[in-house]
Amino acid sequence: MKIHIKTYGCQMNERDSERIRSLLAIRGHIASDTEEGADVLIVNTCSVRAKAEEKAIGKLGLLTAKRRHPHVIVGAVGCMVQRMKDSIFDRVKGLDFALGTGGLSKICDILDRIEAGERRVIDIERHRETADTASAHEKSGLSAFVTVLEGCNRRCSYCIVPEVRGVEVSRPAQEILHEVRTLVAGGVREITLLGQSVLGYGKTTPVWESGHVSPRGFLEPFPRLLEALCEVEGLDRIRFTTSHPSGCTNELAAAISGLAQVCEHVHLPLQSGSDRILKLMNRGYTISEYRDAVGRLRERNSSMSVTTDLIVGFPSESDDEFEMTRRAVKEIGFDNAFVFKYSPRPGTRAEELADDVPSEEKLRRNHALLRDLDVRGTEVNAGLVGTEVEVLVEGPSLRDKRRMSGRTRTNKIVVFAEEEGIGIGSLVRVLVERAMPQTLYGSAVSGSLTRGGAGKTGGGLEL
Ligand code: SAH
Ligand code: SF4
Ligand code: F3S
Questions:
Q1: Which atom of ligand 1 is nearest to 154's Cα?
Q2: What percent of the chain has pLDDT over 70?
Q3: How far does the centroid of ligand 2 lie from the alpha carbon of residue 200, in Å?
Q4: How far away, in angstroms, is 159 Cα from ligand 1 center?
Q5: How far apart are CA 394 and CA 400, in angstroms?
Q6: Every domain of the chain and the residues it spans
């Protein structure tokens, strides 16, 4: 069958969709980029804000309503299924199946049941994964996501994720290493380790075989994992997301500065600059602890890039408290940030608080922060003009096919003039000549190619 998956939500969901496609491919099904002609249409859903849910419900409604043939199967998977359970069938008439976050490895069985004539099939159990189903990847390009930590044990008062993703479970380090070695053997050069609170890797689940020692003497599980991954021959870059200030220890700072493959970038959600609001959010740090966490990382890594998430209009957030967030954002100096308007989620602790910041005020705060961030982002990028940055080349630039584009270690997009010998997968130094808020422009430094690429069209690498 031809299968199309539409994905909403975070990188964890992108990875899950990829895993579903790869599991289906093992059974001989074919992934399709378009809805047209697909026999199975799957929506991977997100519950994080009401808007995300509305989008997914809208999409599912369209797909079930305009089914070309009765044989076309429409299913929902992921966080919304986990939250809504059976009631998702009432919201989406004609939905054939619903699969929660803990049973994606069951996708083939579900399709078999539908083929056998069952309808309204639902599975929201958390099934035990085998190493094979957890590690399944599609034939990938240069970069891959690797989930290292499922679920979340934090209880941020606004957040639905712990409910829909369950308790924290870290994957065994050997399994992750095997997955990454296989990916690298298939051409992957950059991995992003995923976890809702990724620095907590291995804190609540044993992850190392007994007797594992860290040559550099790291005691914390996450830095040890980074160290072990750096031994994988051919892997150029290691990224990780999302970080929490409690994990920004000296060991992490030492791992980032001491391990060449680990990129100098943390995505470290701040959420608010007011201690009172942070406490109501149950974030587990004060603004001064957050500042110290960033300080530790920057002290050892001068080019450290820090990006963040912010929520505006949390219940009872006053104008003064919002101004505290603005000041904190200016003072800490983020490379980039996502700003979200608070959205009450069913069953969370914050839902009990009155959602009392009017929506137009949330919008005003949102815009004000975005303006501040834009100013800062432009300054940060302007400061890079005249410096050299390492770029992993991803392919021709989308806007101008005669130029190449790639990313710095700090995850900024760089566009530069095409040159002999530089292709997809090349690792090259680029002199930055011009900066825009979201993109750097420059030219390759001659003789700086440290790793050859596969030619401009990829020579076998699929992007
Ligand atoms: N585990 C990650 C990501 C969680 S969801 C973390 O700890 O940060 C991504 C972002 O969505 C969060 O950082 C937060 O800024 C935002 N978010 C989560 N719940 C929200 C809600 N109810 N309303 C608005 N934004 C929310
Ligand atoms: Fe949600 Fe907090 Fe867990 Fe992130 S750390 S997923 S915001 S509960
Ligand atoms: Fe991600 Fe949304 Fe689920 S942010 S974990 S897809 S609720």
A1: 7
A2: 97
A3: 12
A4: 6
A5: 14
A6: 2-123, 140-263, 388-444
Gyration radius of the chain over CA positions: 23
The reply to whether ligand 3 has any atom less than 6 angstroms from the CB of 269 is no
Q: Is 269 exposed, middle or buried (0-12, 13-18, 19+ CB in 10 A)?
A: buried
pLDDT per residue over 299-311, tens digit each?
999 889 999 999 9
Q: Which ligand is nearest to the CA of 77?
A: 3
Q: Percentage of the chain with pLDDT > 90? A: 83
pTM: 0.95
Instruction: Using most ligand atoms within 8 A of CB, pick from 8, 10, 340 the residue to mutate for ligand 3.
Output: 10
Torsion of CA 404, 407, 413, 418, to 10 degrees: -10
Q: Which residues, in sequence order, are CB contacts of 320 under 8 Å at separation 6+?
A: none
Beta bridge partners of 406: 393, 414
Which amino acid belongs to residue 197? S
Nearest alpha carbon, ligand 1 atom 1:
196
- Residue 134 Cα to ligand 2 midpoint, Å, equals 22
Q: For the domain made up of 140-263, give the CATH fold.
A: Transcription Regulator spoIIAA (3.30.750)
Cβ–ligand 1 contact at 269 (below 6 Å): yes
Tens of pLDDT, residues 191-209? 999 999 999 999 999 999 8
Fold of 2-123: Rossmann fold (3.40.50)
| Residue located via tokens 């809208």 | 58
Regarding the beta carbon of 242 and ligand 1, being less than 6 Å apart is answered yes
Beta carbons within 10 angstroms of residue 65's beta carbon: 11
Distance CA 414, CA 329 (A): 25
Q: Which pLDDT band holds residue 399 (cuts at 50, 70, 90)?
A: confident
Nearest-atom index, ligand 2, CA of 153: 3
Query: Which residue among 11, 13, 47, 196 has the greatest number of ligand 2 atoms within 8 angstroms of its CB, and so is best to mutate?
Result: 196
Burial of 181 (0-12, 13-18, 19+ CB in 10 A): middle
Residue-wise pLDDT tens digits, 232-245: 999 999 999 999 99
Tracing tokens 């994905």 back to the chain, one arrives at 7
DSSP letter (8 states) at residue 124:
-
Q: Which helix (H) or strand (E) holds 414?
A: strand 413-417
Structure confidence at residue 454 (pLDDT): 54
- CATH numeric code, 388-444: 2.40.50.140
